[in-house]
Amino acid sequence: MNGLRLYDQCEHLLLASYAMHSSDTEGRLHHEMPHPYRGPFARDRDRILHSSAFRRLSGKMQVFTGEMGIYHRTRLTHSFEVASVARTMARVLRLNEDLTEALALMHDIGHPPFGHCGEDVLSERMADVGGFSHNEFALVIVNELEQRYSEFSGLNLSRETLAGQDVRAHKAEAEVGRSPLLEVQLVDAADSIAYDAHDVDDALQMGLLSVDELSELAIVRRALGNVREQHGMLPIRELRQSLVHELIDLQVSELLSHAVELVRSLEGRNHEDVQHLGIRFHHGETLQRERKELESFLFNAVYRHARLIPVRDSAANRLSELFDLLLRDPNRLPLRFRQRQQSHPAAKVVGEYLAGMTDAFCDQQHHYATTTPRGPLADW
């Protein structure tokens, strides 16, 4: 028995009928022979993991930019954390772990430098060419900008992986009618769960928030109650870490409890049946309200914190200045991006070049561009 046939048989035994099975893939845009012992989604995962865009996530801060972000989460560490949470849930629900992991590792690959302020700058500067969305830019990266193969541009990922990222780029449309694959839904949930919990962790560690402030929130009070019931009174460092673990576990556990009940009625149906039925995972109403309260609090108390705003504003100004400079003089773009101007508007190409940068690389190119009057900037 060859490796791929054995792989398919293992999936048949391990996965639920409603999971996305590798044998049901719609393939890739550019035909490739099947790999002898890896399924299509395992190959997608590996291609994303080995891409230069994925590596650059290590230099893109999650929330805290500049010196504030040195010891805190990057887009890379966040992606691994999301993959861990999503893969755990996929295993419980007998969904496709390879596809889940590929989607999780890809989900933030299109983020620009300097976190949300970087996206705000590019959205404003690119308004005349359709704006900027990091979820849409992720598709540009994996379909066009990554150069890993001689036969085609991009990574030539499976149609299911690309469709999952497209759902992220068009969330409003995905909320009605035909539902996304269950694996796609899990990654979206894991992203939100991990993001909120780890922003709490980083904000507490930096002293932007106190446990007392957070305990005003219902979901934090619940988590703190569980921690103290299990461990009693803890030193602040251990309390912070236990609180973050409990925030994740509380949300994952409830989502799974709802999902397990939901999928019991889906045995025997395939992934297409489930999508046509419009099946969607969700938290209960109480936890949904609590999560909204937490996210609203984080937006105002952390993302708009007085210590963070000057750093964000300074980063935004540098990115804006570099965008304007390159738009005025596109010949300073690297050769690859000058060539893209033959088929794309200049503002779009400048935005793509900047969006692919790490925080530090953007600062380096800004310094070079503003101190050297001519010559192209470096490619990434």
Automatic annotation (TrEMBL):
Family annotation (CDD domains): HDc
Q: Single GO molecular-function term?
A: dGTPase activity
A Pfam family this protein belongs to?
HD_assoc
Q: Which PROSITE patterns match?
A: HD
Domain of life assignment: Bacteria
Annotated HD domain ranges read 75-196
Return one Gene Ontology term, BP aspect.
dGTP catabolic process
Query: Which keywords does UniProt give here?
Result: Hydrolase
- Enumerate the transmembrane spans: none
Give the family per the record: Belongs to the dGTPase family. Type 2 subfamily.
What PANTHER family does the record point to? DEOXYGUANOSINETRIPHOSPHATE TRIPHOSPHOHYDROLASE-LIKE PROTEIN, DEOXYNUCLEOSIDE TRIPHOSPHATE TRIPHOSPHOHYDROLASE
Task: Supply the name of the protein.
Answer: Deoxyguanosinetriphosphate triphosphohydrolase-like protein
Q: Which organism is it from?
A: Novipirellula artificiosorum
Q: Which gene encodes it?
A: dgt
